[in-house]
Amino acid sequence: MHLLYSAVMEKIIITSREIGDAVRRRRRELGISQEKLAEMLNVSYQQVQRYESGANKLNVENIQVVAEILAVPITFFFQQNSAAAIAEPSQPYLPADETELLKHFRKIPVCSDKKTVVNVARLAARKS
Predict the structure, then answer these.
(1) Do residues 59 and 104 share a domain?
(2) Which residues 6+ apart lie within 8 Å of 77 measured at CB?
(3) Residues 65-105: pLDDT tens digits?
(4) Are 9 and 48 members of one domain?
């Protein structure tokens, strides 16, 4: 029993502050303002500030919503900061349909065909 307790105590717990830092970092990578994220979460921008500073904790439901909005897996918020040990930058998490689209896009050999696909996507996005 003592060994189990020691192993648990040695485990490093991710704090609300670290989760908030991860939210802020990813939000900025995507170019989303605190106000826009707040609107998407249906909270005030001050609440987003409190989440990012670690002053308020994100509950399980909100972590799931934030992960979806920021297009990352939930585990993204619970990874320890090991960026110095990584030789190459990690790839961002993409939903399955975006991953499939990117996989097929990368297989297109002709540059002009790739431009056509981008133009079709741009036109389709304007319709929504």
Answers:
(1) no
(2) 14, 19, 22, 23, 58, 63, 66, 67
(3) 999 888 889 999 988 754 433 444 555 666 777 777 877 88
(4) yes
